[in-house]
Amino acid sequence: MTISDADSRAMLDLARRAAIEAGSMVIQTPARALRASTKSSPTDFVTEMDRAAEQLILETILAARPDDGMVGEEGASKASQSGLSWLIDPIDGTTNYLRGIPNFSVSIAAVTEGESVIGVVYDPTLGETFTAIRNQGAALNDAPIECSATPLAESIIGTGFSYSAAEP
User: Is there a domain that residue 165 lies in?
Assistant: First the structure.
């Protein structure tokens, strides 16, 4: 599937709008007011806000692109008729969100033929929007960014742990 630069830009704008709307909804609702349940392990949480944000993103994107597919972390699923699918994590970092730690985001990507076309990561606590278009680079709040040239031995690296205790 060939996607023009104009189509890529339009998809990026759509994903950005959906991410910002979902992030705004999430940040306006204190996590302490929500019920949480677990999914794959005792530390893999989902809240009603995860589901509501995923639904908002799904509706926003499908209103503009009804033939595209959807895969949401919280269960949204729709087969693609266009060859393009959207991958959605409505609250990437639900554990942090639940604990009042301001390190979570809304993550949306579009893929075709196994390759990413665009991606948006919106951090509503900092008002930062990271975007990327395949072969066109990445940006933070529309300013181009690039990888650091810092040697690995001098780098600061953060990591997380698997939700499954059996997996390292």
Answer: no
Question: What's the Cα-to-Cα distance from 146 to each of 123, 138, 139, 149, 151, rounded to whole Å?
Answer: 18, 7, 8, 9, 15
- Judge whether 120 lies within some domain: yes
Selection from 69, 86, 90 nearest residue 78 by Cα: 69
Say how far apart CA 77 and CA 120 lie, in whole Å: 19
Query: Tens of pLDDT along 18-33?
Result: 999 999 999 987 666 6
Number of domains within the chain: 1
State which residues form the domain around 19. 5-144
Q: Which of 89-93, 131-135, 155-159 has the lowest mean pLDDT?
A: 155-159
* pLDDT for 1: 73
Q: CATH code at 80?
A: 3.30.540.10
**What type of residue sits at position 65?**
R
Q: What is the pTM of this model?
A: 0.85
Rounded Cα distance between 57 and 78, Å, is 13
